[in-house]
Amino acid sequence: MKYYSTRKSTAVVDLKTAVTKGLADDNGLFMPERIESFDSAFFKNIANLSFQDIAFEVAKKFFSDDVELHSLKELVYDAINFDCPVVPVNGNIYSLELFHGPTLAFKDVGARFMARLLGYFLEKSEKTVHVLVATSGDTGSAVANGFLGVEGIHVHVLYPKGKVSDIQESQFTTLGQNITAIEIDGNFDDCQRLVKTAFLDAEINKQLTLTSANSINVARFLPQAFYYFNAYARLQGVLKEQNKEMVIAVPSGNFGNLTAGLFAKRMGLPVARFIAANNNNDIVYNYLKTAKYEPRASVQTIANAMDVGDPSNFVRIIDLYNNNFEAISEHIVGYRYSDDEIKSVIKHVFDEFAYLLDPHGACGYEALNQYLNNNQLGVFLETAHPAKFTETVEAVVGKGNVPLPLKLAEFMKGEKLSIPMSKQFDDFKAYLKELN
Ligand SMILES: *Cc1c(COP(=O)(O)O)cnc(C)c1O
């Protein structure tokens, strides 16, 4: 399968190139040139398949031209080593819990898959590939844990000193093996500048193979389609019995998750409607109301993984629908929530239904609560475990009501290992030149 750029001013590339480069030469995002549908036999049998089986069937539709089947199977089953269960919350509203992976957020799915796919492509090469990531917190942990132990790849995580939480820091500084954490005496922008400068440095690139594990990578966003099919498989019985259609609410920031859902629908998944749930960064909400896309600087909210003012994957949605606003707004409805609204939803759902939402999932839950009619059943994506936002959530539901999951506690016990570094590029360059 070939991949084209959303800007369409550069040649198509193969999967290996799309995954290693991340971004197309014309700065567009890669799109697969075909989206194949499943036949009715697949949907007839889907309830009998495990999440891993489903993931493999979906992966085959995209990757079987480029990856030998037995290797694809191995890498899917290895990447998807945790469940994404569907849990009833209230009436016809269900939570698709995407936080059972190593860093307790949905980004584990894409990061683990991408790491293994990259590992597969590099298997035959002698040279180590160096992944450089700048992080303000969560991306670093998903990427570091995703790539942990993958042969032939070394990950270097740059993070701003004193500006990430202890829990976040522990998730990428305690791993060892092929993961090195670098604590930069500066802010997130300094970390990002160092990484970008390294990618442009001729001398470094001659010596080392560098790549990024950016969230716009096709190998990170396409696997997110896996769990939409899983949600349907787990609910098919209820949907049929109650003669209802499925609506899915997606807490959205960069819109990779929602785009993957739209791909699943294009592959035949029966989703009546998607809801894009935003916080105060309501650019897509406004677009769905006015047909005008007006990006602007992001504002800070308590659902901070959705604080995005110009969602990168929006161009993928435009491309998927040939910029047909009517078609887009027929498939996607927008909702928007302020911090106060998010807090009151978390409190209400905890008090009434004993379910603990995180600030992102809360937007998805409430959108369903407002949107659903009696013929519909709603699923919201619970994108992270509430304990990743303990301070915010405890302030709402009371101290002691947000238990720390074992996985996070384990990270906190590990020994913090990181290399202190200035924000001068010369220092980072000297560090890179020691590598091979
Ligand atoms: C990244 C993230 C989001 C936003 O997902 P997009 O694919 O960027 O729209 C939502 N919730 C959490 C917890 C996240 O980490």
Task: Describe what this molecule looks like in 3D.
The chain has 20 helices and 14 strands. It has helices spanning 15-21, 40-45, 51-63, 69-79, 107-122, 138-147, 166-173, 188-200, 202-207, 218-221, 226-242, 256-266, 283-290, 314-320, 325-331, 339-353, 359-371, 390-397, 406-413, 425-433, and strands spanning 2-5, 13-14, 30-32, 86-90, 93-97, 129-134, 153-160, 179-184, 209-211, 245-251, 273-278, 332-336, 376-382, 418-421. Helix 12 links the parallel strand 10 (245-251) and strand 11 (273-278). The radius of gyration is 21 Å and the shape is globular. The mean pLDDT is 95. Bound molecules: pyridoxal-5'-phosphate. The site of pyridoxal-5'-phosphate has 15 residues, from helix 12.
Describe the SSE topology.
Elements: E1 2-5, E2 13-14, H1 15-21, E3 30-32, H2 40-45, H3 51-63, H4 69-79, E4 86-90, E5 93-97, H5 107-122, E6 129-134, H6 138-147, E7 153-160, H7 166-173, E8 179-184, H8 188-200, H9 202-207, E9 209-211, H10 218-221, H11 226-242, E10 245-251, H12 256-266, E11 273-278, H13 283-290, H14 314-320, H15 325-331, E12 332-336, H16 339-353, H17 359-371, E13 376-382, H18 390-397, H19 406-413, E14 418-421, H20 425-433
Parallel strand pairs: 5-13, 6-7, 6-9, 7-8, 8-14, 10-11, 10-13, 11-12
Antiparallel strand pairs: 1-2, 1-3, 4-5
Helix pairs in contact: 3-4, 3-11, 4-5, 5-6, 6-7, 7-19, 12-14, 16-17, 16-18
Bound molecules: pyridoxal-5'-phosphate (PLP).
